[in-house]
Write a structure and sequence with these properties.
Blueprint lengths: L1 H14 L5 E12 L14 E12 L12
Antiparallel strand pairs: 1-2
Length: about 70
């Protein structure tokens, strides 16, 4: 069973170049402006939420046969 799993993993690695690559990243940030800040009137305070979601999709067209499976 272990050898079968190893052979399947090796096949997946070899075929990985045939499929698109997808990367996803996310982040969340909360910041608050100080009420003592000289940019705002006295006692005025702001709360800011920033949410980012990034995605990257790439694919290499195999024009010259570099990724071919033997």
């Amino acid at each position: 069973m272990a050898r079968l799993a190893q052979a399947r993993a090796a096949t997946r690695i070899q075929r990985a170049g045939l499929f698109p690559n997808l990367g996803v990243a996310s982040s969340a940030e909360r910041s608050r402006t100080s009420p003592n800040s000289p940019r705002f009137p006295a006692g005025y305070e702001t709360l800011v939420n920033n949410f980012d979601l990034e995605a990257d999709l790439s694919y290499e067209f195999d024009v010259w046969g570099r990724v071919r499976i033997p």
